[in-house]
Design goal:
Elements: E1 4-13, E2 16-22, E3 26-30, H1 37-53, H2 55-60, H3 65-68, E4 79-87, E5 98-106, E6 112-120, E7 128-133, E8 136-141, E9 148-152, H4 159-162, H5 172-184, E10 186-188, H6 192-195, E11 199-200, H7 216-226, H8 228-241, E12 245-251, E13 259-266, E14 273-274, H9 280-292, E15 300-303, H10 315-325, E16 330-335, H11 338-341, E17 349-351, E18 353-354, E19 360-361, H12 367-376, H13 382-388
Parallel strand pairs: 3-16, 3-17, 10-15, 15-16
Antiparallel strand pairs: 1-2, 1-4, 4-5, 5-6, 6-7, 7-8, 8-9, 11-13, 12-13, 13-14, 18-19
Helix pairs in contact: 1-5, 7-8
Length: 395
């Protein structure tokens, strides 16, 4: 995938006191509970919330600045910061990436101030820097014919939620592109109780999968209508993991075009099984397959404990499908499964640890260092190395 997130840098966000993580198409976090995996995923949920609700509500949703800021060390931090480097806008590249930085500072009298910075280092035309400080937006175009202008903004309004309204000459199109990418970030977790239920009949073939798969039935029905080939591959994948499964179909308990439920045709049973009566693992599997076959995925998909509830025989297939889907959307996922880690390459594995002061080390090892450890072990699988402690990041 050409347009992707290249790196994230975080300061003082929960346990992420100072973390810089290069991002590849597929990134799998391993490490003990409390190492910061969930906090890293919440960085992206937080940015999506900033766009959806603005900065102050996104902080309030998490208990305010003091609850979000790093709790370790002798002194409470006075700021938190998130910086993203990406290739998203038209002329961005590895050598000239886009940058977005958000810094929130707690002032002495307890109020908050924020500073944002956008940099679009285009290889064609003029470069552009947009800085937001207090109630002022400063737009600077570099290069021949460049200029500078100033715009007003509310004190704690995020540039991500307000600046897309700027004209193209003021950087509105570039900011809009960044905001759209961030707003699409998905932190996905199959909520089994919700996914079991009937969902409304899809109004279009472009049904968007809910972050908890609450509309699983509607999404799968829309997928079958939109892409028969993808639908058939999804069914075949489910059959590979569930040997008793013969087919997946749909029923309409409230009448056609109103509600839809998933039904499973299983070998040896006289009647099909509604998804409401299927096992926890079966529902988790179908929710994850729906995610991996999503024809219109977000820019980044985060999944916590992706292996939870799945039989080990599903993991090889899961990693294969993750790699295929990562050509269309980046993945940042967390696992506690050595069996899943066994199927990864060193550049896909992100080892997470926790320091004595409560801060997270992410990554605790570089990809090159992991490769060296694998070579020294004469090719021992990553999961075995991790489980043995050779990679750190205890289970």
């Amino acid at each position: 995938m050409e347009k992707r997130l290249l790196a994230v840098e975080v300061e003082n966000f929960r346990s992420l006191r100072k973390v810089t993580l290069p991002l590849r198409p597929l990134n799998v976090l391993v490490g003990p509970n409390g190492a910061g995996k969930t906090n890293l995923l919440d960085v992206f949920r937080f940015l999506a919330d900033v766009i959806g609700t603005d900065l102050q509500p996104a902080l309030d949703l998490r208990g305010g600045f003091d609850e979000v800021a790093f709790r370790g060390g002798e002194k409470a931090p006075t700021h938190m910061q998130i910086k993203l480097t990406a290739m998203w806008t038209t002329h961005s590249s590895l050598n000239a990436p886009d940058e977005y930085q958000l810094r929130v500072t707690r002032l002495r009298h307890g109020t908050l101030s924020r500073r944002e910075r956008f940099a679009f280092k285009r290889t064609q035309g003029r470069g552009r820097r947009i800085t937001i400080n207090g109630q002022k937006v400063n737009v600077v175009d570099t290069g021949r014919g460049g200029g500078e202008r100033e715009i007003g903004i509310n004190a704690l309004s995020s540039g991500l939620s307000t600046l897309p309204r700027l004209s193209d000459d003021e950087g509105g199109s570039e900011v809009s592109t960044v905001a759209q990418r961030l707003a699409s970030f998905r932190v996905f977790d199959v909520r089994v109780d919700s996914a079991r239920q009937a969902s409304r009949f899809p109004r279009a073939k472009t049904e968007t999968l809910d972050d908890g798969a609450a509309n699983l039935a509607g999404f799968l029905l829309a997928l079958r209508s939109r892409d028969e080939g993808a639908w058939q591959r999804l069914v075949e994948d489910a059959q590979e993991v569930l040997p008793q499964l013969e087919d997946i179909d749909f029923d309409y308990p409230s009448g056609a075009a109103r509600e839809v439920v998933v039904v499973l045709h299983e070998r040896g049973l006289r009647r099909p099984t509604q998804l409401a009566d299927a096992s926890y693992g079966t529902i988790r599997l179908l929710g994850l397959l729906a995610l991996l076959y999503d024809p219109s995925p977000p820019a980044l998909t985060c999944v916590e404990e992706i292996d939870h509830g799945l039989h080990p025989q599903a993991l090889a297939l899961l990693v294969e499908r993750l790699r295929e889907a990562s050509e269309r959307t980046q993945f940042l996922i967390a696992t506690h499964s050595p069996a899943l880690a066994d199927r990864l390459s060193p550049e896909e594995l992100v080892v997470c640890e926790r320091h004595a002061d409560g801060s997270s080390a992410i990554p605790a090892l570089t990809a090159d260092h992991i490769e060296e450890i694998v070579t020294a072990s004469e090719g021992m699988p990553l999961g075995d190395l991790w489980f043995s402690g050779a990679l750190g990041g205890d289970l």
